[in-house]
Design a protein that fits this description.
Belongs to the group II decarboxylase family. Its cofactor is pyridoxal 5'-phosphate. This is Aspartate aminotransferase family protein. With about 450 residues, the chain is α/β, with parallel strands linked by helices. The protein folds into two domains: about 5-70; about 90-350, 3-Layer(aba) Sandwich (Aspartate Aminotransferase, domain 2). It contains 14 helices and eleven strands.
């Protein structure tokens, strides 16, 4: 055994204590750490021949890399839709590395059953029936990819072929219809061989990001009975808008299509009495994307994909090999990865520790804080809201000169007080603040609002 590896093994308890103390110092300093930083390019150093041991590596990381990291786990990181990491989720994530389980096979541990229990808890949390089965993937992109891969197989089934066996060339032209599909949908279509050009945008309602169901009905009718894929949104990234899922599902009485719902963060609206109705009809979806490192506040990377057609899912992702035994319900046959970490453990800890009530409190608080920031921005003459605050995203621009939005974003980032991402909404340059962190409070909203006032 290498001498440094042997030394680390002998000192493992002390190393774990030292790492824990270092982690606590980072977490204790999140409140005052610059929320985001302008990255400074660092050229890679050559790989050392003799290593420096874990203590040396920890010291080198603390000096060279950690100071340049953002406070994305903190309460004023409002860019993208990024959750933090609750204490329970952090505990689960740490133990994930300690136990180092590969849950894709049921041959050697009960890890797959923990994942199945976690999926069942999540399904119950957002109000779905048992018919929706699922598995863990790395994030919303892979969840959308998995759902659309199953949809692709369904299209083949409608035409009497198996795409998993015969390939994409046997399928012919495909139509994917959506109002405001997330960019990951186009990426998934590219990876699946369907092509980004298969995505056909359908008009949205005036002043909304929700699809016009009448226009969708007409677009489906124009296909003359050819099966299609419809991608609906439960929470758009710019304004948190929702498609009318019930009305879309009802169109299947007249048209054949697979309904995939991108509910990456919007699924958790089920935990708010005032917003749960937005998910009416979600149970009718054929496949669903839910991202957990957003509003569930577990570490990257974590998401689930859900579908009512496990048979098609297994047909797509099965990994037949003699050493794995017969194709069964093992998780290896359900997602692109043959092996992966036990992502479910962090989510299991979060759900076990805080339950429905605790997770609902986070969602309700974030919703209230998003509404509060919207009110503060609406009261500032320098800014203009571009859409009502429908969920947890506040979308706004500079009132007199939207082209200045990049300067405002940079000024806020440079202040270290907050991080907001730029976007374009209805052709207008904008900023968006997305609330999904478990730590965020009214005091944080005050600091963000003051930073915006100074940046104006």
């Amino acid at each position: 055994m290498d001498s440094r590896l042997g030394d680390d093994l002998a000192q493992l308890p002390e190393l774990i204590d030292a790492t824990g103390a270092y982690a606590v110092r980072i977490l204790d300093g999140l409140g005052e750490r610059p929320v985001a930083r302008v990255p400074v390019r660092r050229e890679p150093l050559p790989l050392p021949d003799p290593g420096i041991g874990t203590r040396g590596a920890l010291a080198a990381f603390a000096e060279r890399w950690e100071p340049g990291f953002s406070a994305s786990a903190g309460s004023r990181y409002l860019g993208f839709v990024t959750g933090g990491c609750t204490p329970a989720a952090l505990t689960g994530d740490w133990l994930t590395g300690v136990l180092d389980q590969n849950p894709t096979s049921g041959l050697d541990s009960t890890a797959p059953d923990l994942e199945r229990e976690t999926v069942a808890w999540l399904r119950e949390l957002i109000g779905l029936p048992a018919a929706h089965e699922g598995a863990f993937v790395s994030g919303a992109t892979m969840s959308n990819f998995a759902g659309l891969a199953i949809a692709r197989e369904w299209l083949g089934e409608q035409r009497g072929i198996s795409i998993a066996e015969q390939g994409i060339a046997a399928l012919g032209p495909v139509r994917v219809l959506s109002g405001r599909a997330h960019s990951s949908v186009g990426k998934a279509l590219s990876m699946l061989g369907l092509g980004r050009s298969a995505l056909h945008p359908v008009d949205v309602l005036p002043g909304r990001e929700a699809v016009d169901v009448a226009r969708l009905d007409a677009a489906l009718g124009a296909l003359n009975g050819e099966p299609a894929i419809v991608v609906a949104n439960a929470g758009t990234v710019n304004t948190g808008d929702f498609d009318d899922l019930r009305a879309i599902a009802a169109l299947r009485d007249r048209h054949p299509f697979w309904l995939h719902v991108d509910a990456a963060f919007g699924a958790f609206a089920a935990l708010s009495p005032g917003h749960a109705h937005l998910l009416d009809g979600l149970a009718e979806a054929d496949s669903i994307c839910v991202d957990l490192h957003k509003w569930l506040n577990v570490p990257y990377d974590s998401a689930v994909q859900l579908t009512r057609r496990r048979d098609l899912q297994t047909r797509v992702f099965q990994n037949a090999a003699a050493y794995l035994g017969p194709v069964n319900d093992d998780l290896v046959h359900l997602t692109p990865e043959n092996s992966r970490r036990l992502r479910a453990l962090a989510a299991w800890f979060a759900l076990a520790a805080y339950g429905r009530d605790g997770q609902a409190e986070i969602v309700r608080r974030d919703l209230a804080l998003a509404e509060l920031l919207g009110e503060r921005i609406a009261a500032m003459p320098a800014y203009r809201l571009l859409a009502p605050v429908r969920l947890n995203v506040v979308c706004f621009t500079v009132a007199d000169d939207p082209a200045r939005i990049g300067q405002v974003a940079q000024a806020v980032t440079d202040s270290g007080e907050a991080f907001l991402t730029t976007t374009t909404y209805e052709g207008v340059p904008a900023l968006r603040a997305a609330f999904s962190n478990w730590r965020t409070t009214r005091a944080d909203v005050d600091r963000v609002a003051k930073a915006l006032e100074r940046a104006a």
